[in-house]
């Protein structure tokens, strides 16, 4: 459905469509690398950096970071610095997940999403038919889950039973968030030229 609507939706939503495409690609690459080299740490760690940057670009396209360009640059530099430090300086890109980085960008994404929702509430209107609201809800759900999982790993990495219980919920949470994203794509507003063309030709 996203590919069908890609040429019709407003430009401000195209970074989110890129986000969905990257997520699908990462799943495929991760599946293949597990089959070939028995783990997908490299692809997962690289994807987390790309995902964090794309999500920041989503909020830029929606206006927040466009109005706070210095903050946007600071966030990108912070992401790059923490990722390089954890994966290439002190960590092992090939054999561990970058938990500190995931915790950081998940926290920032939650804060950005809450800020966007507050803005949308002030605008009024039916939030459940608002694509930005639905996307932010999806971000909050999956990122809060990431904060819990990565926080648990950082605080008590040897507590395997607790970690396994938390990870078992991922399939259900991921499925629900994907449904929310699909609904968001359905409600994405069309480009102004297409909208007015339909109105005048009706």
UniProtKB/TrEMBL annotation:
Transmembrane helix among keywords: yes
Transmembrane segments: 12-34, 46-63, 70-90, 102-121, 133-149, 169-189
Superkingdom: Bacteria
Protein name per the record: Uncharacterized protein
Organism field: Chitinophaga barathri
Keyword line: Membrane, Transmembrane, Transmembrane helix
Keyword Transmembrane: yes
